[in-house]
TrEMBL record:
<feature type="region of interest" description="Disordered">
    <location>
        <begin position="49"/>
        <end position="70"/>
    </location>
</feature>
<dbReference type="InterPro" id="IPR019410">
    <property type="entry name" value="Methyltransf_16"/>
</dbReference>
<dbReference type="InterPro" id="IPR038899">
    <property type="entry name" value="METTL22"/>
</dbReference>
<dbReference type="GO" id="GO:0032259">
    <property type="term" value="P:methylation"/>
</dbReference>
<dbReference type="GO" id="GO:0008276">
    <property type="term" value="F:protein methyltransferase activity"/>
</dbReference>
<keyword id="KW-0808">Transferase</keyword>
<keyword id="KW-0949">S-adenosyl-L-methionine</keyword>
<dbReference type="GO" id="GO:0005634">
    <property type="term" value="C:nucleus"/>
</dbReference>
<protein>
    <submittedName>
        <fullName>Methyltransferase 22, Kin17 lysine</fullName>
    </submittedName>
</protein>
<keyword id="KW-0489">Methyltransferase</keyword>
<dbReference type="Pfam" id="PF10294">
    <property type="entry name" value="Methyltransf_16"/>
</dbReference>
<dbReference type="InterPro" id="IPR029063">
    <property type="entry name" value="SAM-dependent_MTases_sf"/>
</dbReference>
Length: 379
C-alpha cells in the first residue's frame, strides 16, 4: 500500500485559480508550447491601510475584490439583485394548482457591465509581445509605478510550477515592501525565483539582486518579466545569457547579505537541495547574512497515514530545527518566525497557512572552534 502513489497531471496556483477570468490574457506560447499569460499586480502604495494589518482578509483597491472573494462573485451579484424588499408583509403567490408561483424579475441592463460574453467563461485575448498596452480598456488608471507586470503559465506539470505565481512569493514581496529599510542598498540573492516577482520587488530598493533558477525556458520568462518592469528597476545584462562571470561570483560572495526563497519547499528532495545550497553559500559569503524563507503549509490526504497531513511542511520544519541544533561550527544559525500581520500592499489572499521564517547566520567568535572540522557545509 505504501508504494502506491497517485500523481496529478497538472498543478494550478490558487493565485490564478481565483483571478477573474477577464484578467487571463494570453500573450504567447513559450518554447515548450505552453500558453503564457500576463497578469498585473497593483501595489497599494498610497492606501491609508498600509499602517493596518493585512492578515485579516487583506486590503484591496476599490472595485477590485481580494483574490479569495472572486470565486463567489456570481452569488454576490444575485444577492445584490434581490432588492431591499423584506419578507414581512409579503403574500405568497400561488398558481391555479396551489403551487408556489415564482415571478422572475427581468434582469435590468447595467451601464457598468460592458456587453460581451458571460462572465463565467474564459475568453483569453491573444496579444503579441510587441503590444505595449497589454490590458487595453482594462488598464488601470493609476501610475505605472504602482503596477508589477508578470508573465506566467497556468496549470503546469509539477516540474514547471516555477512558471506560475504563488501566494508565498506575494507574501515575500509584501514583506520586502514592508521592510524597505532592511533591503535598502543591499545585495540580495534569490534561490528558485520562478517568475521573478520577489526579485523584481527587491530590486526596487536593493543595490543588486541576483535572480536565480534552473531551466532556460523559465529563465527566459524571468528575464522577460524584468524587461516588462524596467520602469521600476534597471537590469544588468550579462555578455552570455544566464551565465556567471568571475566578477559576478566575486561580487556575490563579497557583498551578499540577504538570501531569499519562496515556495520551493513542496518536495522533500528540493527542500534538501535548497537548505544544502543555503549552507554552502553561508560558508562562502564574507559577511553575516539573513535568509528569508516563504512557505505555505499545504494539507494533503495520504494513503500512508490515511489522514490529512502536511509532510512537505514537516520536512521543512525539520530542517529549521536541524540548523538550530548545529553546534561546534564556525557559523551560528538562529531561526525565528516572522509575524505575518504586517500591512498587505499587494492584492492576494493572505491565508493563515502562509508563513515567513528568518535564518540569521553569523560567524562564531569562539577561538576554541576548530576551523578544519567546523567549516564544512551540509553534504
Amino acid at each position: 500500500m505504501d508504494e502506491i502513489t497517485f500523481r496529478s497531471d497538472t498543478v494550478l496556483s490558487d493565485v490564478h485559480l481565483y483571478t477573474p477570468n477577464q484578467r487571463h490574457l494570453m500573450v504567447r506560447l513559450n518554447g515548450m508550447g505552453q500558453p503564457v499569460f500576463l497578469s498585473q499586480f497593483k501595489l497599494l502604495w498610497d492606501r491609508d491601510s498600509q499602517t493596518d494589518s493585512g492578515a485579516k482578509g487583506g486590503d484591496h483597491t476599490e472595485g477590485t475584490p481580494p483574490a479569495g472573494a472572486v470565486c463567489s462573485r456570481t452569488g454576490a451579484s444575485l444577492q445584490a439583485g434581490a432588492g431591499t424588499i423584506t419578507p414581512e408583509g409579503l403574500e405568497a403567490q400561488l398558481d391555479e394548482d396551489g403551487d408556489l408561483d415564482v415571478v422572475r424579475r427581468p434582469r435590468a441592463a447595467s451601464a457598468s457591465e460592458p456587453p460581451g460574453p458571460p462572465r463565467d467563461k474564459v475568453h483569453p485575448t491573444i496579444l503579441t509581445q510587441e503590444e505595449d498596452d497589454v490590458l487595453g480598456d482594462e488598464a488601470p488608471e493609476s501610475s505605472p509605478y504602482n503596477v508589477i507586470k508578470i508573465e506566467h503559465t497556468m496549470a503546469t506539470p509539477l516540474e514547471d510550477v516555477g512558471k506560475q505565481v504563488w501566494r508565498g512569493a506575494l507574501l515575500l514581496a509584501d514583506y520586502i515592501l514592508f521592510q524597505r529599510d532592511l533591503f535598502q542598498g543591499r545585495t540580495v540573492l534569490e534561490l528558485g525565483a520562478g517568475t521573478g516577482l520577489a526579485s523584481i520587488i527587491a530590486a526596487t530598493v536593493a543595490q543588486t539582486v541576483y535572480c536565480t533558477d534552473v531551466g532556460a525556458d523559465l529563465l527566459a520568462m524571468c528575464q522577460r518579466n524584468i524587461a516588462l518592469n524596467s520602469h521600476l528597476l534597471a537590469s544588468g545584462d550579462p555578455e552570455v545569457p544566464f551565465s556567471w562571470s568571475k566578477e559576478d561570483i566575486s561580487h556575490l560572495y563579497g557583498h551578499t547579505t540577504i538570501l531569499l526563497a519562496a515556495e520551493v519547499f513542496y518536495d522533500d528532495d528540493l527542500t534538501d537541495a535548497v537548505f544544502k545550497t543555503l549552507s554552502r553559500l553561508a560558508h562562502k559569503l564574507k559577511n553575516a547574512c539573513t535568509a528569508i524563507l516563504s512557505v505555505e503549509k499545504r494539507l494533503n490526504f495520504t494513503l500512508r497515514h490515511l489522514d490529512v497531513t502536511c509532510e512537505a511542511y514537516d520536512h521543512f520544519r525539520a530542517w529549521l530545527q536541524r540548523l538550530e541544533g548545529l553546534a561546534g561550527g564556525r557559523l551560528r544559525f538562529a531561526v525565528e518566525p516572522v509575524d505575518a500581520t504586517f500591512p498587505q500592499l499587494l492584492v492576494y489572499e493572505r491565508i493563515q497557512q502562509l508563513e515567513l521564517w528568518k535564518i540569521f547566520v553569523e560567524p562564531v567568535t569562539d577561538p576554541t572552534v576548530s576551523v578544519d572540522t567546523a567549516s564544512q557545509p551540509f553534504s
